[in-house]
């Protein structure tokens, strides 16, 4: 087959990821990431993420596509975070920055929103031990 007749689109390009689908991915992945105590997702977790992203977005996404997109988002977030810190800004204009920053940068006690029961118990234990000293 001549090279010119082949598709030049990479197998897992970001072309079919629109803003809504990316936010769905961040929401689904972020929930699982926080449930796991900010630890890496296992293969079965990624399968579940891909299934939920596919259902919510009405676009078929597999585990590899979701992992690849999240890796791209993490790389972009690290660059944006460094730029924000270097320039001394409070935030980035990048559309996904606030969501990524909430998931990647915050410690559990700074988080706004969902906290696991274990995180709440840990916080209460810290508060109790600090107030008794």
What does this structure look like?
The structure is a single chain. This protein is an all-alpha fold and 133 residues long. The protein has one domain. The chain is 60% helix and 0% strand. α1 runs antiparallel to α2 and α2 packs across α3. The longest helix has 25 residues. The radius of gyration is 19 Å and the shape is globular. It starts with 18 loop residues before the first helix and ends with a helix. The N terminus is likely disordered.
Please give the structural blueprint.
Blueprint: H1 19-35, H2 43-57, H3 63-87, H4 97-104, H5 117-131
Helix pairs in contact: 1-2, 2-3
Pfam families: Myb_DNA-bind_4 (PF13837)
GO molecular function: transcription cis-regulatory region binding
InterPro entries: ASIL1/2-like, Myb_DNA-bind_4
